[in-house]
Task: structure prediction
Amino acid sequence: MKTAGDILSAIFDERFVKKAQGYSKFFDSWTDITAKNGIPAAADHSRIKDLDRGIVLIEMDHPGWKQILQTKQSKFLNDFRIRFPELDITGVALMLGKSEPYKEENDQNEIQEEKNAEIKKLSGSGQEVELAAAEPIVKNTPAVQSFDSIEDGDFKETLKKLGQTIADREKKN
Result:
């Protein structure tokens, strides 16, 4: 019986595997590059989004970070060229992206759990709680029972099915 590694080795030649490892190292290098250039905190607010035709696309979560990164753009280009000469990098482009910091998914889950715990603690104390920071609480939201005001029959049926699907999922959880 062949192992998964044997099958993959038969499918992918060694050059392909090395190229894939090179790309992986490239995308993982952002933290080191920002630290080397004196702005390690930038890695929490930006990331390498893509490499397209020799241009490294860096995405950040706030215009302030874009301004800071612009001051180091030529240094980033030199660092990428030195570390990854095989990628033929010719430029660095900066763009604004999503508004959340670029933390690991586990970090985001921990932050959300802390927020939810704080909200539970505050709601039990009788204080007003701002729920905007928490995940939506579908269980406590009254279901819309009347679809009479919707004229489009297909749309009305779609909404009813969606409502039923959500209700079924809530029962399972």
Summary: Residues 121 and 161 are 35 Å apart (CA to CA).
